[in-house]
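Hi P.,

Sorry for the delay on this. The queue was packed all week, but I finally got your sequence through. Input first:
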Amino acid sequence: MIWAMNLRTSNTSPSRCAWLLPTVLAFAVVGGRAQQSPPPAPAPSAAPITDGSFIDARGTAHVTRVVPVPHTISPEAQRILARPASDAAVPQTLAQRRSGTDAWQARAGDASKAVYPVAIKNDTIAGVPVRIIDPLTVKPEHADRVLINLHGGGFNSDSGSLTESIPIANLTQTRVVAILYRLAPEHPFPAAVDDAVAVYQGLLKTHKPTHIAIYGTSAGAILTAEVAVRLKQLGLPLPVALGIFSGMGDFSLLGDSFAMYALNGLSGHLDIPDGPRDSEYVGNTNPKDPVLSPMYADLHGWPPTLFITSGRDLLLSGTTTLHRAFLRAGVDARLIEFEALPHAFWNDVKLPESKEAYGFMADFFSQQLGR
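Then the structure:
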């Protein structure tokens, strides 16, 4: 079902307006995400102020909703949800996206390191470039443990090798190897999977599989499951645990949340999709290939896996659907859904909810690696 929605604040008292979403949002099914700052949102008086819905002959839902900023989240998170934003498209070249993402990741990495001190160096493993993130203090019993991070960034940029790794290395007191895998569109599937498998095999020379865990956010969460499928196909031992933080496992179908939320939740540009998600990453591969889309793989015997998502996450559906597939296969699969927050909110180190999410991640990995 395709949704088209308009949301805005109502013409109510000033005290209530202060906590209503102060922006006009219009969207259908997501096909792309603008990464630059959009133009200012239209004034509230330009949008409807009543709830309503209409289902047309094709089953398409045209919905108007007034959505308040919930009080069930931190004041810091409330302020983020209340930022006005336009749904206008902001064209961006791949070079601009990568340049902007790299600059943001550097700034966000510094902010994360200020809160969670670590040591960072660049290296290669099995010929693949990596970042090595080490805690400043390593317990002797943690010396032979390692976490592998597969960063997010839509498969075409790096939006997480620092922000996804620094807090976890600090909190678990365990080395994190962030793989700088090859990117699409120059290197479509399975290049990134092959790079991750190569690094994993390299680490197996010095670490037991029971002392290795793999995790990632967004594109990295998708890659985490893809890599596990490939390891099983190759007859290699699986890692002791997986972390799938806002991911999905089926490139042939788009979930409901992908039709409703943009990168920042209920604000931002959405396009009606005309093909499989992330087609430049998929390339010529069948979207139902079991490595590309682990929903079609044999998931039996997989290690304990932690899933994390949030209420306004564009990959909420993908995360929860894959979680259920793990449960059907008898996997120890745990799901945490944060209230109201948008996609991969934990990349913002300032949010109290991010601190909570890091804690869940770190506790899970510490328990599994310590078995």
